[in-house]
């Protein structure tokens, strides 16, 4: 199974998820657009190693959540990040779909962290990233 099939399947699952789409401004494959203002999601594959019969890699879903202004200090939107973590957990339980893809899920990690790699790509924006990483084997 190729990475594009996996990416397309997961992208479609996200777009069809009513809870996630309540919060998401955009869903993208592989990278974010330069100009963004809302809660954006990126689906990507890391380290895909393929042989004739198997494929091994990591599926990465990252949701970028802008921090909220608390009187001049920007802080994590804990409520939104918590809801999105729960939604990603539920999504990860639905990734294996009969007749679409069948992955052997080796491990799953869900976490939230402050995005310190942003630099000046989005001026005046502080954010946290809610991440789901699934190591798989097909």
How would you describe the overall organization of this protein?
The radius of gyration is 16 Å and the shape is elongated. The protein is built from 3 helices and 7 strands. Strand 2 and strand 3 (55-66) form a beta hairpin. 27% of the residues lie in helices and 40% in strands. The protein has a single domain (3-137), classed as 2-Layer Sandwich (STM4215-like). The mean pLDDT is 83. It has a 5-stranded mixed beta sheet with strand order 1-2-3-7-6, with helices on one face. A two-stranded antiparallel sheet has the order 4-5. It has helices at 3-16, 18-23, 78-94, and strands spanning 26-29, 40-50, 55-66, 68-70, 73-75, 104-114, 127-137. It has 138 residues and is an alpha+beta fold.
Distance between the termini: 7 Å
Please state the CA-atom Rg, rounded to the nearest Å.
16 Å
> How much helix, percentage-wise, in residues?
25-40%
Question: Sheet with the most strands?
Answer: 5 strands, mixed
Unreliable residue runs? none
Output the strand order for the largest sheet.
Answer: 1-2-3-7-6
In terms of DSSP E residues, the strand content is 35-45%
How many runs of DSSP E, i.e. beta strands?
Answer: 7
């Amino acid at each position: 199974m190729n990475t594009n099939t996996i990416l397309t399947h997961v992208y479609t699952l996200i777009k069809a998820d009513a809870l996630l789409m309540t919060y998401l401004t955009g869903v993208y494959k592989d990278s974010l657009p330069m100009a963004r203002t809302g809660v954006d999601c990126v689906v990507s594959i890391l380290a895909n190693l393929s042989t004739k019969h198997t494929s091994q890699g990591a599926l990465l879903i990252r949701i970028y959540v802008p921090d909220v202004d608390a009187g001049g200090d920007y802080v994590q939107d804990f409520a939104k990040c918590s809801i999105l973590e729960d939604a990603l957990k539920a999504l990860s339980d639905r990734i294996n779909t009969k007749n679409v893809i069948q992955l052997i899920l080796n491990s799953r990690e869900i976490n939230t962290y402050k995005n310190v790699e942003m630099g000046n790509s989005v001026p005046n924006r502080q954010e946290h990233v809610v991440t789901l990483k699934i190591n798989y084997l097909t």
